[in-house]
Design brief:
InterPro entries (chains A, B): HTH_LacI, LacI/GalR-like_sensor, Lambda_DNA-bd_dom_sf, Peripla_BP_I
Keywords (chains A, B): DNA-binding, Transcription, Transcription regulation
Radius of gyration of chain A: 28 Å
Order of helices and strands of chain A: HHHHHHEHEHEHEEHEHEHEHEEHEE
Structural class of chain A: alpha/beta
Protein name (chains A, B): Transcriptional regulator, LacI family
Oligomer: homodimer
GO molecular function (chains A, B): DNA-binding transcription factor activity; transcription cis-regulatory region binding
Number of helices of chain A: 14
Pfam families (chains A, B): LacI, Peripla_BP_3
DNA sequence: TTTTATTATGCAAACGTTTGCATAGTTTAA
DNA sequence: TTAAACTATGCAAACGTTTGCATAATAAAA
């Protein structure tokens, strides 16, 4: 033990005994180099000889040096870090997006700090304030349900922190956005119902103040109009946040109509699932009597009986795309942050809750 | 315009024009105070007069100052940040835990940085290396499936970075842990099947090398033994990671047994759901012919028909508890980091996939 | 041999904030 | 009136790393 300790100089001994962190200076003292040389050696700078680099690596192991990345980030004035503001992490869609973001960020050596707005505008503002303190190099946001104005993101813009929005994105606000084409997707879903023989198609909508639900509603209507099917407001149910119970409620209303629908396009899978269950319980056959199409391709859509025809909303890819775009903007460092909108292609996944194109008579 | 600009001094003008960040020094110059005074004013230090604090706040607004928290963290040698290593964010259980962590952390002014190990030991090691560079003040980990040795956490220990494990925790390794009592929970679940009249109870297990699944298996066996029901290895199916398809496979094997089970305890809800579906498809009535109990209380357990009796594994609370314990350890700063294990109480949620205590004859 | 490149290293400042100690000014107590 | 206490502020160092510039040492070219 004494022999082992003798290999260290007095100062290092003290550091080790006090469990102080070993710094570059300690390595410098140990090896008789200047701190700058150590720094360059650690960063594999070309001007440092191979021999020295090896010496340094050996000393790193010996003294147990780990970089103080706060100091490094401070000096380099970059965090290699991106922030996410998400309504709720527990919602499957968002957790998939976050997963995609993390995956892409990790590859590019960035790390990812998450915040939940809990769908509250106030909290979103608070978080925006926290994030503009140079804590992150860029931010990815899905707006809170409550959010109807975007001033709190201006400060970030002013400080040249790039922001990329996804899914619930601000309207009439210059910013980078990653979205799917909700209009087009809803159109596609509705058209699928039409072409599989449905004549009276209902829609369970989210809050139409929120742009994505507004677009889905529009797409639904456009498909009907295109195929000369009259719109009927009784066939549209508006919900607050498209949860399971609201789906039950809406489906029951459809069930009680004198002239019942033979197809329902739901703005998400939760309501689609509850719709299926309500109609099954009322002894309707799906898709025999009524077809149901959802939106999002949640895991449950493959499990519910019948399995649910739905739109794959590409959550994971959305996260990847958001991280990708954000990091590009961070690293561009041009004077003006460019605004770019990426629209991801969705796909209609046809399962058993709707008749397939071929099977309709 | 000129008048407005005249309110700024020359230096500030340059800063603003170049869009350089405003610092404490700029505020100091603007107001004729020392930077230290500004710093104290901003941090609401008692030694600074109210008048000065107000002046400073006014200048902050005027010049648009935001703190450089990298610098601040650097100087204070703390990040107010906790890291999470999680197998996969997209798994609902983990996203709930993360949600709980974020919630607690946010209240305590910490932020949360997430990493996915993708259930890979190598990646877990890599992340541990990244995290020990003083990037975070403490770490919360759920081990990767592959992980069978814990040396990569020793470096963290050496650098006095507290670590709290949850759910999949290391065995025979001194560390803080947040767990549920898997043994007890499985015992409870199995006993419920017994007391609702089942005589032949099967089990779908996860990988029994993983401690939580080993414990669930043990609990299952113990309940049988306690109630004098003979163990039968044919009634136990081992899976790799308890996914839906493995559940289907296992359930079919049970279905093909000459002497079929009348109750199945599944180590998670996915396999329970597939079990229900397999038996339903084979025209078994649930819970009439066979009862099924799951584990985790996933959202799907309330939707599947029949709704699934399961164990509430308290994911959100687990996250809260982990963050709580970790932050306490961070702030204790005692010389030795204490190891503490918190066992959360689970509850059996009885739904329609098993007969209730009262209804069994 | 002298000049010019080339290579390897060191010096010292800088990044923005915080903080222990010092000090000037003011009030209170003796 | 002087000492003591308190208030408000300033000075300067410190945190650990990086980096532009300078320099010493060596090798190559003239």
């Amino acid at each position: 033990m004494i022999f082992k300790l003798a290999l260290f100089n007095a100062n290092d001994c003290i550091k080790i005994m006090l469990k102080k962190r070993i710094t570059i200076k300690d390595l410098a003292r140990e090896l008789g180099y200047a701190p700058s040389t150590i720094s360059r050696a650690l960063n594999n700078h070309p001007g440092i000889s191979k021999k020295t680099k090896e010496e340094v690596q050996k000393a790193v192991k010996k003294l147990g040096y780990t970089q103080n990345s706060i100091a490094s980030n401070f000096r380099k004035n970059t965090m290699l870090s991106i922030g996410i503001i998400v309504p709720r992490i527990g919602i499957h869609f968002h957790s998939l997006v976050i997963s995609g973001i993390e995956e892409m960020a990790y590859m590019r050596k960035y790390n990812v700090t998450i915040f939940q707005s809990q769908d509250s505008l106030d909290r979103e503002k608070e978080i925006a304030k926290i994030l503009q303190t140079k804590m992150v190099d860029g931010i990815i946001v899905c707006l809170a349900l409550e959010t109807n104005n975007y001033d709190h993101f201006n400060q970030l813009k002013d400080n040249k922190v790039p922001v990329v929005f996804y899914d619930r994105v601000p309207e009439n606000y210059e910013a980078s956005k990653i979205v799917i084409n909700d209009y087009q997707s809803a159109y596609k879903a509705t058209e699928h119902l039409i072409s599989s023989g449905c004549k009276r198609i209902a829609h369970i909508s989210g809050n139409p103040e929120v742009s994505i639900y507004k677009e889905r509603l529009k797409g639904y209507k456009a498909a009907l109009v295109k195929h000369n099917i009259p719109l009927d407001e009784k066939l549209i149910e508006y919900t607050k946040d498209l949860n399971y119970d609201e789906g039950v409620y809406s489906a029951k209303k459809f069930l009680n109509l004198e002239h019942k629908p033979d197809g329902i396009f739901c703005a998400n899978d939760y309501t689609a699932v509850s719709t299926i269950q309500v109609f099954k319980k009322a002894n309707y056959s799906i898709p025999g009597d009524i077809s149901v199409v959802g939106f999002s391709n949640y895991p449950i859509s493959r499990i519910i009986e019948p399995t649910l025809t739905t739109i794959n909303d590409r959550a994971f890819e959305m996260g990847q795309a958001a991280a990708n775009l954000l990091i590009r903007q961070i690293e561009e460092k041009s004077e003006i942050i460019s605004s770019e909108t990426v629209v991801l292609e969705t796909e209609l996944i046809i399962r058993d809750s709707s008749k397939s194109f071929n099977s309709h008579k």
